[in-house]
Design brief:
single chain; 533 residues; alpha/beta; FAD/NAD(P)-binding domain; Flavocytochrome C3, Chain A, domain 1; seven-stranded mixed sheet; binds succinic acid
């Protein structure tokens, strides 16, 4: 049949988790198809600057200290067993990448150079200059593209999963593939014994983000529509320091700069972080982002500044070559002038409910990386724990998928071809653009760093109206990537708002001015598909 392909495993997403899992599975002899919305190396992982948080120097550091820092940042909402699992698997992940050929930066003694970032009480961030994600993806991508068992479909957008029963809530539910919009605009049916969602986060739900354009929460929305609940989706992390520049968008100014001694100041050169936390500019991210938001609102200024001028110029150029160059090209010489910065949406600490090994409650459906909620991050992710999670999960989810595949017969169910709507509408593009902008603006203004009951109610009411319009489009018109992404960001926005409404306290990344306290009972926020679909 036309547009129908078979694989053992379908992986949606080509960040660190998706590609590492693909390689692992292919080496076990499984046929893997990877679908990704743009080029294989466009992902949040590829943009990661900081590095991988893991204990390397056991003379001064320990697993217990890394666990404690993760729990402190996570404001008590972490799952301690999950935290232990990821922290203790860190050194193995580093060894694995070194064997693949990744060169992490070393110090003069030939040992791993360890960076420091906010919330870490020790230096433990293993990095490759200030382009760790880029280096990781470069090497893993090369191995993936050379592997005969892996097919990569670039510029393909997953639409929805296919389940054997067709009724996602039924007991014998089993995922057997997905419908995917091809680069030719046709909908393909990809049949697979198991599907791994490794689509990353949802930064594009917000007007300002450090994330690339592809992060529209597709995996979150697809998994939720398939029946997996989401956990703690109100915990959206805002990175405190994104470059504020009229021409350079979404450029992260790594926390590692503050780790090396960078200090936040206002436009008059005054420091302010001492008012908010004893760790000052190196306080956990939620506190720094909220402090900057507060300072900007009080002063009416468009940004604050990160002052690196007290550090040695040669050191800055050597330690942060990429950030240094991009700033300089934008007219900012960080040796002599402070860098203008603002907070922006960066990371989703919540996600699809899963075990640390990436299994979900739906047979045949697995998740890995930012799209998953494993319990590692709690109410606020510790810096550079994200690549740690992505790397460790990839290994274990591959084991789980291989085991599932060995025990499960291929499905005899032949899903029907996708039934495309046949009308195209001249107005479609403008309506999609209008709704895209509106969702992102609503989320930034009403569901951002500081929330209130009234803002959340307003945001939900607006989204309900849009949802109606978007659903009508979805069913009546041919699907396009823009429409699919709009449908997904709208659902993810709703999940964030509904989760935020359920949390009647302020904790970690979720700050509601109507509940400026922490409850004694610590609880995850769960939203199930049955509640809203
Ligand atoms: C950064 O380099 O500041 C980002 C790293 C992270 O998000 O953990």
């Amino acid at each position: 049949m036309k547009n129908r392909i078979h694989a053992d495993v379908l992986i949606v997403g080509s960040g660190l988790s998706g590609l590492s899992a693909a390689l692992n599975l292919a080496e076990r002899g499984l046929k893997v198809t990877v679908v990704t919305k743009e080029a294989i190396d466009v992902s949040n992982s590829a943009n990661a600057q900081g590095g991988i948080a893991t204990v390397s120097d056991f003379n001064v550091d320990s697993f217990e200290k890394h666990i404690q820092d993760t729990l402190t940042a996570g404001a008590g909402l972490n799952d301690i067993e999950a935290v232990r699992f990821f922290v203790e698997n860190g050194p193995d992940a580093i060894r694995h990448f070194e064997q693949l050929g990744i060169h992490f930066t070393e110090n003069e003694a030939g040992q791993l150079d360890l960076g420091r970032e906010g919330g870490h009480t020790e230096r433990r961030v293993v990095h490759a200059g200030d382009i760790t994600g880029f280096e990781l993806i470069k090497v893993v991508k090369k191995a993936v593209l050379l592997h005969p068992n892996i097919t990569v479909l670039e510029n393909h957008t997953a639409i929805d999963l296919i389940s054997e029963s067709k009724f996602f809530f039924s007991e014998d539910n089993r995922v057997v593939g997905a419908y995917v919009l091809s680069d030719r605009g046709e909908v393909m049916t990809i049949i697979a014994n198991s599907v791994l969602l490794a689509t990353g986060g949802c930064g594009k739900v917000y007007l300002y983000t450090s994330n690339p354009n592809v992060t529209t929460g597709d995996g979150l929305a697809i998994g939720f529509r398939a029946g997996v609940p989401v956990v703690n989706m109100e915990m959206i992390q805002f990175h405190p320091t994104i470059l504020y520049h009229e021409k350079i968008n979404s450029m992260l100014i790594s926390e590692a700069l503050r780790g090396e001694g960078g200090v936040l100041i206002d436009k008059h050169g005054n420091t302010f972080m001492e008012k908010y936390h004893p760790l000052k500019s190196l306080a956990p991210r939620d506190i720094v982002a909220r402090a900057i938001d507060h300072e900007m609102k009080m002063s009416g200024d468009d940004c604050v500044f990160l002052d690196m001028t007290k550090l040695d110029g040669d050191f800055l150029q050597k330690r942060f070559p990429n950030i240094f160059r991009i700033c300089l090209n934008g007219g900012i010489d960080m040796r002599t002038m402070p860098i203008p910065v603002v907070p922006a949406a960066h990371y989703s600490c919540g996600g699809l409910r899963s075990t640390p090994k990436g299994t979900t409650e739906i047979p045949g459906l697995f998740v890995s990386g930012e799209v998953a909620h494993t319990g590692l991050h709690g109410a606020n992710r510790l810096a550079s724990n994200s690549l740690l999670e992505a790397a460790v999960m990839a290994k274990y989810v591959a084991e789980e998928i291989a085991e599932y595949t060995s025990k499960t017969k291929p499905s005899s169910y032949e899903p029907p071809d996708w039934d495309s709507g046949n009308a195209e509408d001249e107005d479609e593009k403008i309506i999609i653009k209008q709704n895209w902008d509106e969702v992102r603006r609503i989320m930034w203004n009403y569901v951002g760093i500081v929330r209130s009951n009234k803002r959340l109610e307003r945001a939900l009411a607006r989204l309900e109206l849009m949802k109606h319009e978007i659903t009508e489009y979805y069913w009546n018109f041919k699907v396009s990537r823009d429409l699919l992404e709009l449908r997904n960001i709208t659902l993810v926005a709703e999940l964030i708002i509904r989760s935020a409404m359920k949390r009647k306290e302020s904790r970690g990344l979720h700050f509601n001015i109507d509940y400026q306290f922490k409850l004694d009972t610590i609880q995850n926020t769960v939203v199930t598909p049955a509640e809203i679909l």
